[in-house]
Amino acid sequence: MRKNSRWASSTHFVRSKDSTLGSKLGLRISASNYASQTSGRGNREAELMGGFQELKRTVRGVDDITTIGLPTILAPFFALIRSPLSTGPITSAALSALHSLFVCGFISPTSIALDHALVELSSTVSHCKFEAIDTSGDEVVLLKIMAIIEDCLCGNVGSVLGDIEVCEMLETVLTTCCQIRLSETLRRSAENTMHALVRTVFSRLHYLDPATEEAKLRTTDEDAPEGEIKLIVSANSKATEEASEEVTVDSQEVTTENPMELKPEPVAISPTPVNPAADRPQYGLPSILELLRVLVNVLDPTDQQHTDSTRLVALSILNTAFEASGRRIAEFPSLEALVLDPGCKYLFQLARSDNTSVLHLSLRTISTVFDTMRHRLKLQQELFLAFTIDRLALPSSPHLRGSHAAALAGKRSYTGSPRTNTPRSGTPMSHSKGGPDGERPDQEFESAAAPSRILIAPARGETRNLILETLSQISRYPSFMVDLYANYDCDINCENLFERLIDFLTKAVYPTDYPAEDAQQRNAQYLCLDLLLAFVNDMAARAEGVSEMWTPDFPTPESLIQTKSQKKLILSGASRFNAKPKSGIAFLEENKLIYTDLSEDITKARSLAYFLKGCTRLDKRLLGDYISKPDNIELLKAFIGLFDFRNKPIADALRELLESFRLPGEAQQISRITETFASAYFASGPAEIKNEDAVYVLAYSVIMLNTDLHNPQVRKRMTIEDYQRNLRQVNDGDNFSSEFLLNIYDSIRKREIVMPEEHTGQLGFEHAWKELLTRSRQAGNYMICNSSVFDVEMFKIVWKPVISAIAYAFISFEEEYIIQRSIAGFRQCATLAGRFHLPDVFDFVVVSLSEATSLLSDVTPAQVPNYPLIEVEGQSLTVSNLSVKFGTNFKGQLAAVVLFNIVNGNGNALREGWTQIFEMFQNLFLHSLLPTRMLQMEDFLGGVSMIPLRGSVPPRPVTRSEGGLLSALSSYLMTPYNSSTEHLVPEATDSDIENTLCTIDCISSCRLEELYSQIMQLDIDALIAAVRALEALAHERTVTKLKQESDDGLTHSDKAFSLPYDPASVFLLETMSSLRDQVYVSFDLLSGLPQVIASSVGEQVVSGLSLLLQKHREIISSQTEWNLVFALMRSTLTNPEAARLSFDLITSIVPDGSDQCVTIDNFSGLVMILDDFMTTAGTWTERSQPKGRRLEPLTSAK
Predict the structure, then answer these.
(1) Three-state secondary structure call for residue 871
(2) Which tens digit of pLDDT belongs to each residue from 860-883?
(3) Residue 258: which residues within 8 A CB-CB, separation 6 or more?
(4) pLDDT in tens, 1062-1079
(5) pTM for the model
(6) How do strand 254-256 and strand 129-130 relate by DSSP bridges?
(7) Residue 255: beta bridge partners?
(8) Which residues lie below 8 Å from residue 1178, measured CB to CB, with a gap of 6+?
(9) Cα angle value 215/201/144 (rounded, 5°)
């Protein structure tokens, strides 16, 4: 309080105006006298207070204070805030007053000389100085400075500010955010203020015209004074200690010295209402671009001036900037260029950080960048997704990708490079040692042409979940998978990212092999499953009509699909070339990938050179070795002839050439390459070089100089003098100029010529990033269109692993939400299979669901056990093992309901799946769980009856009792053990009954009877498949089983043969006979039954045949169809009653009159069947004669 007492006096002697008053009165005041009066601290303090006294006098006689210029009113406050004599409380009071003026609306767009006042305000708060008293009080001042800046920039007067003022304010707040010495509360408050400011500033992009702002930016760059609107990251002598500590606190003052030093023209603060900024434009793109530049530069992981804490602040602010600007930011070329490079470059490097906080914020910012600028980041997104999949992939998984398996075998085939058209799967690399995992933050982004090395360790734990969450966020829009397929899978120079991503997601649904917490692993499985189900859901929505028309500006879908097919051939050819070049060339020629453009100007060598230079999937080492062989000299000339060396220094020309292939190690091969290069380079007309020999020597010297300057094993480096000495008189007898050789020397010294397979570490990343930028200028924009034109092709590629993953999730996961989503996924996959006419997919869905129902039985008993029958509410229930077990299996019930609801109405899409359907029918039948209609059979004799579950039991012979007390006692004691348990019926508990009721309800919900009735209405292909499934099941239970029993010796010829009764076989045959549209298949099957079986059921078969011909005689017309009918009759002739019915049927076919239906198609068959009747009748007549009548002649003779 004592330090502030001097400010508390109510009376102040103001001397700052004495000179003005004396002059007005005509007095002469000596300069020395005036200086003595105004010198000293007290007088300076009095002058500060005098400003307020003057303001009081100015406003005393004014009726409307708003008529006074705003700078006049604010000048005393500005002077007090800027003065180093002020203490913290005094400065705080002045700032509070300014805040009140903003709050009450005094500072408004209608204020007089507002522009000038805001210029002074910006300068004032950016250069506020005051005496330090205590830390907490001083930080209060900084908090109020933040509040004033927010009032000014985010309020209704913010649009009046210029670019310089905005930069000053942003500097002040950003500086406070980064000062480690300040308290956490202050820094967090400053961050909140910075976010509000950035949100306001970047939101302005929505109202700015890109063309106008870009033109203004160019004008600013050309005409503005040096340093204007320029934020510079300062690098002081203590940068290595704490680059972010810029607030110095001592006993004298607190000074805000910003890390970004703005250097505008000095602005003089004057109370007079002048307006120097009147003709200056409002802030716009220049200040926004400068702020973005500063934030991006802070992210550079190689810049040791900034710490991770500073990068966290920059990442958070940058994310807010992209959120506020949205997709508008991509419409400003200057901002777009800054984001593309170096923005994405730094963000991708930070995505490898071991700091979880940095990793989290960098991934979040990357996600926001893709959401706002995806259409301009085609190759950048490919790089990031490839890196993400590599990081998430688990090499120990049994479902390894081919590239990972190859890498584990010692040949790296994919490294996640920014050069996204570099070799990927199937492209083996040479062996070399690499650094340890995690040694460099940019390993994953190195060129795929780099030597093989140990694969990166997979992300685990929290890191894995963060990356998966980011992947989920990036893909959270309907056309994501379509866009991946169209942009990458259908691009020869890009990866098959759609296939890779689906492959990873389907495998990640299954549990991993590496140890992890159950919660983390389950969360990862849920995320991957969610992405798969979203993919299926989006495709199903497009199939229902929620899709867009393919944009006419894009390449046609047909051309993209053709490119996809060609890409497969190129990858195969490149793989063959990398294994054996001659074999690869032959494959390429066979598939017309080379030599198709031959003409007078294009030879075979040139055509092949075009492919070898353009196909980046080739092994660079093998390529260099192949083109430099003696037999391929023409190819070498054609290959080097494709380079344009005009106006390029020889060092740059060699650098470009040697980046396309690996220089061989054999001297003769190097000589051929150098000679060919010398010829091509000299033909381009280089300056100062007189002949090809000079180029040849220079090329060798550049290669040697590169090795000498950059090989770590060379201790004594070649100097420029040594280099000049080595090249004396090689230019056709003359010397090269010193400047010419110095340029070559400096070029190699500053930029090493790096062979393709040596692009490792930071150097490799820089090279790969440069190539990515080069390709991005030619790759075009990222195509985004939620079209269904590729859905069929996409679904054909991935349907099997997708459905398998959904089935696993349905069976294994217990969460209700996951089960619901899985059920929806099954339904949608079945719908897509029907729409795309893919019966294999539909069958796979049915098979997957049927396995989940538990209604399939590995072993079906030949004899049905005795199950208790219970009356419940007038309904007779059979309580069986299946009904009890299925009633407790809630997930199986869900699967059953979903399965049969899917099949109902979609039977025409089913083929092999009918086997599972009928197996479930069979199992349900044996346990009396089918609807009544499906349990009935028509025997054509007694009408409709229930199919019996047991055959008639022959009476047992009565055992004769031997009598005797001991025998009776023994029989009494042993009866419980010897008596048959076949007729014992177990008791059903209340729980069993309840579970059975659950099963009955589930079966009712499945609508099995409806599906059963639909079978007869199937199309021909589906019906044939259904009949074949029934035939196979029936054959397995009858013919195959009987044959097996016969082979096992279970039947004995010396005993009377008894046909075993199998209710399941009867059910299957009854179901088959209901398929009347395929009656001939049934005729053929029945006519092929064994004689004993055919005779036992002959009467029923012929009765059914007779009924069919009476009601539907028109269905039999061709000779083949009549032959099947006659064959069926012929198989039943051994049964007398069946033979009689067959003869009556034939008689009805050949009556006289209009009912006669004898035709040329059935005449021969009728004759043959009648002949069979005669033969059979003769046989029966012979058998029916008494044996005694044959002996009669002997008796009479006797």
Answers:
(1) strand
(2) 666 677 788 888 777 788 888 888
(3) 126, 171, 172, 174, 175, 246
(4) 666 666 666 765 554 456
(5) 0.76
(6) antiparallel
(7) 129, 248
(8) none
(9) 140
